[in-house]
Amino acid sequence: MQMTLDPKHLQGVEPELAQVLSCVASVVGEISGILRSAGSGYCGSMNAFGDQQLEVDVQVDCLIFERLASCSAVQGAGSEEQPEIRTLPGSGYTVVFDPLDGSSIMGANFPVGTIFGIWPGGSPVGRAGRQQVAAAYAVYGPQTILVWAKPRAGKSAVHTAANGDNPNHEDSAGLDAKSAAAAPEAALSNSICSSGSNIHNTHEVHEFLLHPDGSWHLKRVNVAIGPVSRTFAPANLRAAGSNAEYAALVRRWTEAAFTLRQQGAAARRDSVLYWMC
């Protein structure tokens, strides 16, 4: 099935970057089809980070590399499964990705995701996340969605990446765990979005929904982290058993009657706002 994205959604984007984003949208559609019938068996190997690889991890990883290699605007790529940046035939951008975030719980039929970071030029090693020119993630659940942050019309890739070096840029966490645990509720609710909002000065964050015919339809525009949230999604709760500051932070959320929105794996919604910061 041919995956289609209306070119109007890439108006004002530099042609080479538009090629990369189109490639991302296309391969996400392919992955969605693969996952409908994929198994959850292990292939007997581990990646560079010591994680056991599922057969579908390897399959999706190889597929993304193949599609990026066919894009004339991609000169390099690396992944969680193959972290060393691989030189590709194109020129312009380097893409790094996690092929299947949360694949270890595919057997429970929970949502999983794919994460992409796009840097101008060569290797991103030693460069800050805010120097990405674009970023995207997909979630494969009851629906397949794709969320990306792309430069606003008139903002070139080079200009956007250079502005990412702003020395006044705040840390994306806003508050450290100890400070957040002691903060009043209003500050706690606002802390996670104190820097995420900066992205909207240079980028548009849009969400697309994949339809059964393979077409992407715009679902939400100008996606943003709200000024106040009553939900939380803590990662690695086991760490609370040995990290008193993290335990205090989680306890603060629960005592404030925040709603848990986490399944322990898949890319969380609006995460692209963090990766760009």
Automatic annotation (TrEMBL):
Pathway: Carbohydrate biosynthesis. SUPFAM superfamilies: Carbohydrate phosphatase. Residues 13-150 form the Fructose-1-6-bisphosphatase class I N-terminal domain. Gene3D superfamilies: Fructose-1,6-Bisphosphatase, subunit A, domain 1 (3.30.540.10). InterPro entries: FBPase_class-1, FBPase_N, SBPase. Pfam families: FBPase. One of its GO terms (biological process) is fructose metabolic process. One of its GO terms (cellular component) is cytoplasm. GO terms for molecular function: fructose 1,6-bisphosphate 1-phosphatase activity. Residues 158-179 are annotated as: Disordered. This is Fructose-1-6-bisphosphatase class I N-terminal domain-containing protein. It comes from Volvox reticuliferus. The lineage of its organism: Eukaryota, Viridiplantae, Chlorophyta, core chlorophytes, Chlorophyceae.
